[in-house]
Every structure is written in structure tokens, then in C-alpha cells.
Amino acid sequence: MIPEAREVHLSRKDRKVLEACCRSPVTLQRDLKRARIVLLAADGRSTRSIAKEVGVQPRIVSLWRHRYADHGLEGLQDKPRPGKQPIYTKTTDKRILKLLDKPPPQGFARWTGPLLAEALGDVDVQYVWRFLRSHKIDLVARKSWCESNDPNFTAKAADVVGLYVAPPAKAIVLCVDEKPSIQALERAQGYLKLPNGRALTGQSHDYKRHGTTTLFAALEVATGKIIATHSKRRRRVEFLDFMNSVTAAFPNRKLHVILDNLNTHKKNEDWLKAHPNVQFHFTPTSASWLNQVEVWFSILQGQLLSGTSFTSLKQLQEHIDAYVNAYNDRAEPFVWTKKKVRQRRFKGRRITQL
Predict the structure, then answer these.
(1) How confident is the model at residue 289 (pLDDT cuts 50, 70, 90)?
(2) By the 8 A CB rule, do 34 and 27 touch?
């Protein structure tokens, strides 16, 4: 049953607005029909005749007549609708985050989407994945960190960084360390052409071992040049033999040597007494990244050792020696750019033992 028709009285201002709405080419169809209904109703037309002319049901005409009569132009706007109640809420999100703080089920090394959904019981796995993506939580990727517990971190770090940015006058600053057990691996290598026409280098999965070598290296901070030698082992005797060759390369010069906390680097007081021009400086515990020679070892790994093949240990050693010579021809000092070196504790740090 159609409700009794309401009289519609238009002000001049409202009529101009509605007529402009009808003339505009960008007016939405729903707004155009509502404007025409109100304009025709203001002219005294009946509900059924308006419905026939506009092309809507009579109840639609009655609705907008009443809405305009009660609320004016604002009544022609859509009321906010509550919509469908979401299945999952912020409480669900908090449950997922709380579960991620707990260890995974026994027998599993890490959480997965299906494991989280199973543990929650009432949450679909697809929502779990959407939630993880929206919060940029990657359950597969892993990052490692190293936190120094050295109580003298600040003093040791300042000592090492001070040698980099303000070395003592007429002294040589050296960064010394060793890269142990470099393998001489023989692999089949060549170019591979894929079905799509792309060509790339490749190597076989199988390999043959020809022994290992330990590389002792000293980086001169002022020039970036490298002194390197090979050894079968990395004991104290090999370390001191290398230091003898380093001191021989800089006769009658004061040497400040930066080292990490390896046992063979410490308790060498007798050797230091025999070499009064040499002073050892140690990086903080678990902070060997302060030693610049580690940067050079990373360059060596990427430019020389990765993806190469050697048929003998001698070939590997000659290959490294050739690289050191070529590197020294174009060596440049590393520039220390970090303004502050400070120790920062992880908030809520914990170690979980599986």
C-alpha cells in the first residue's frame, strides 16, 4: 500500500539546485531521478504519474517525497549503512601477534600460515596470510644479529675508530685478521642457454676438493693496500710469523695493529716486548665488523672466490696472490662514514632454546 502523498514545497534556492542537477551531464542517474521526483512533486503531480514518467516504482516516489518534505535537500542523500559485520576484528589480529610470540608447536622450527590457523582454531588460513602480508611479517626470511656484551665496548670502539679518523702522526695503522679454510674446489663451469634464449654462467653441483689454505691479511688503513700470505693452519705460531713479515715491511715505524678477540691474537706479551714499535688494539667482543680488513675479505669473496674453480691448492693460492697484486695497483683507503658507534640493547631480548 502506497503511503499518503506528502505535499512538497520548493524554495527558489532548492529549485535552482535541483534544476541544475537535472541539466548537468555528470549527475549520477540516482541523483537525477531523485531531483526529477521532487521537482514534479512540487508541481503538484501525483505519485503514480511521477513514477510512470521517471520510470520507478510508486513506493520509490513516495520515499523521496517524504524524505525531502522532512529533511530538505539533505534528505536526498543516502544514509550511512552499517554494512556487513566483519568476521575478524582487531581482537583476532592481537591473537595472531600473541601467538607469534610463542614457540611453534613441538616438532616444527617455525610458524607457518596453516600452523597459525590451526592453533587459533576459528580463523581461516587465508585471513592469516592477508594479515601477515599487511603487517609485512615474513615467516620464512631470517636475519641474524650480533650483540656485544663487552662492558668496555665504548672505550674499545672509540679507540679503534679514533685510529681510523685521526691516526697518530708518523705511525702506520694496520687491520689484521685471517680468513681460514679457503677451499680449492674444482667444478665444471660454463655458459648455459635457457629455452627462452637467455644465457648465464653456471657450474655443476658436484665438485672435487683439493685442500684448503688460510689467508693472513693486513690492510694499511692510510692507503688501502694489502699484505697477505698463506698458511696451512691458523695457530699462534703462524700468526706471529705473519706479524714478523708485517713488521719487516715497515722497518723503524710505529705500528698500531687492530685485531679481533681471537685467542691467538692475545697473550703475546713476549712478542710485543721484542717489538716495542708495535701496539695491539682489540675490537670489542662480538664486534669484529669494526676491523676494516673484514670489508676487504668480503670483497675478496665476491670478486675472486665465488663461482670459481681450481684444480689444485697451488692454483688457488696463485690466484689469490695475483688478485692481491692487482688490488694493490688500484687500492684506495676505506672512508669511515658512521658518525657514532654505540651499543644498543635489544628491547625485551630473549634467547629461545629449542
Answers:
(1) confident
(2) no
pLDDT tens, position by position, 95-104: 999 999 999 9
d(CA 100, CA 120) in angstroms, rounded, equals 11
Whose cell is 658507534? That residue is 341
The answer to whether 281 touches 157, Cβ cutoff 8 Å, is no
Question: Is 139 in contact with 112 (CB distance < 8 Å)?
Answer: yes
Residues 56, 62, 63, 67: is their CA dihedral positive or negative?
positive
Query: Grid coordinates representing 221?
Result: 688503513
Cβ neighbors of 170 (< 8 A, separation 6 or more) are: 253, 254
Dihedral angle over CA of 84, 89, 90, 92, nearest 10? -170
The reply to whether the predicted model has a pTM over 0.85 is no
Q: Which residue shows C-alpha cell 588460513?
A: 125
Q: What is the DSSP string of 177-209?
A: EEEEEEEEEE--EEEEE-TTS-EEEEE-S--EE
The CB density around residue 300, as the number of other CB atoms within 10 Å, is 22
How far is 140 from 19, CA to CA, in rounded Å? 61
